[in-house]
TrEMBL record:
Cofactor: FAD
Keywords on record: FAD, Flavoprotein
Gene source species: Niveispirillum cyanobacteriorum
PANTHER family per UniProt: BLL6224 PROTEIN, D-2-HYDROXYGLUTARATE DEHYDROGENASE, MITOCHONDRIAL
Official protein name in the record: Hydroxyacid dehydrogenase
Pfam families in alphabetical order: FAD-oxidase_C (PF02913), FAD_binding_4 (PF01565)
Amino acid sequence: MSTDLLSALADLIGPAHVLTGTDMAPYAFDWRQREESHPVAVLRPGSTAEVAAIVRLCAEARVPIVPQGGNTGLVGGTIAEKGTGAVLLNLGRLNRIRTLDATDYTMIAEAGCVLADIQAAAQAADRYFPLSLGAEGTCMLGGNLSSNAGGILTLRYGNARDLVLGLEVVLPDGRVWNGLRTLRKDNSGYDLKHLFLGAEGTLGIITAASVKLFPRPRQVETALVAVPSPAAAVALLGLARTGTGDSLSAFELMPRFAFDGSREILGRDQDPLSAPSPWYVLLEASSGMAGPALRGQVEAVLETALDQGLVTDAIFADSMEQQRKLWLIRESLPEIGRKIGGAVHTDVSVPVSRIPDFLAATIAAVTAYMPGIRPYPFGHAGDGNIHFNIGRPVDMEGAAYLAHAHAISDIVHEQVLAHGGSISAEHGIGNHKAEELARIKNPVELDLMRKMKAMLDPDGIMNPGKVLVR
């Protein structure tokens, strides 16, 4: 980057917000601290107008731009590749909630708003924003929308894109598209917002969004349920959706590894049921109405499932603290994976009905590839999203095991495709899966994606190397 351009950027947003050298360190690694970013500068604009002006300057100079939010992504989507001369555009200063309309059940928030702050603002207005992720105390709205984040409540409320009514986007030429509508029905032509939701900053930079709010739950019932198999879990899901009037909001599948790993690796004894089970479900149902009805519905579902042999034991949370402890079991699994000292992580989805067959086939396939390997698949079974993670054999060093990471991921992905699934359920493509996407994507879909990219970003300056490979 030329010194003239750096000087122009400093004049535009202030020298304190143009970082170079060692000042870039806090922004220069991915969340897992495995991949280093190499921008020539980190830019921290404070408004949509400043983002647009930066993009215009960079477009004129053909300088690539990598947008970044809370930097909690897991697929290298905010990495500036070495030698590309890219700037990293961090949106953390765009952190205002512009409007909240409790009557319309809508909010307009900027891209740098931390997800937990959006949730808190909705709650203060007696409303509910249901996007919920493990990283919600750090991740930002723009990144959530750019990656079409999922999370634990997708079963009830949908992915991030399902919560969006409108967007404000800075286009690759520096123009601003103001599509911040709050209408529930608008059939006036192409729905342009869906071009940018899930596009990972490759078509433009989301600077604000209008999102849907919901009634705040007055009653939440959380239960930990022991099941004999994934097939039993899927059957329980059907019973629970019908038996609660589709009030089920979360349905998480976990292997026994969640409990044994918590005790052996994290030093936590968090096994509240009377006997071990090979599989567990953490389910949650919620209602906007107070009263005992929902507990009775869930109890009736579990009694039926017990009679049918789908459930062997269960426990309800009777307080918010007990709810927190039950969710801690599920939330411990990523931490266990990090502390194993070598684990292959995948984020995939299959049709819910095919989860049992997929798990059986994939466990058999990776075990055949490397005896002693420790699969611990878990995740959002209610919507078909499985994090099929695989720990190293106990007698194998982490580095030696991770040398097989690509081959093991390929085995998982082969089974995903064989079972009608997707190689990315909620984490996106980034630079980690771009080549794989090019290999497996339907040629017509791939051609349409490339044509949209060429039309909107003909110079290829928006987050190069992500989603689509050249």
